Amino acid sequence: MASNCELYRKASIGTSLTDALDELVTNGSLTPLLAVKVLMQFDKSMNDALQTKIKSKVSFKGHLHTYRYYDNVWTFLLEKAVFKTESESVQVDLVKVVACDAKVVAH
């Protein structure tokens, strides 16, 4: 279940936060327990912000190369995917989409 909540740690903002926390723990400015609490708050805040602050809608379609469902997380690899918003359309050769149930993540 923990992996569901940690989806955004792999994004650049999450890796930057993790690197900064690691440095603070290494030099003794922060305890490991407090660093873990900060990461847990980051996970919650990212999920909350994406649910309440983002109003844009995106639709996409493509050729389904592979899919997997594990631990309440869906992973899809799409080939020749097209992403559409109200104002633009973007095509990519290969994209990985990771999705989880927001109700499960909230707990």
From TrEMBL:
Gene3D superfamilies for the chain: Transcription factor IIA (TFIIA), beta-barrel domain (2.30.18.10), Transcription factor IIA gamma subunit, alpha-helical domain (1.10.287.190)
Compartments reported by the entry: Nucleus
GO cellular component: transcription factor TFIIA complex
CDD domains, per the entry: TFIIA_gamma_C (cd10014), TFIIA_gamma_N (cd10145)
Stretches assigned to the Transcription initiation factor IIA gamma subunit N-terminal domain: 5-50
Segments forming domain Transcription initiation factor IIA gamma subunit C-terminal: 61-102
Keywords: Nucleus, Transcription, Transcription regulation
GO biological process, one term: transcription initiation at RNA polymerase II promoter
Keyword Transcription: yes
Subunit relationships: TFIIA is a heterodimer of the large unprocessed subunit 1 and a small subunit gamma. It was originally believed to be a heterotrimer of an alpha, a beta and a gamma subunit.
Record function comment: TFIIA is a component of the transcription machinery of RNA polymerase II and plays an important role in transcriptional activation.
Family affiliation: Belongs to the TFIIA subunit 2 family.
Name used for this protein in its record: Transcription initiation factor IIA subunit 2
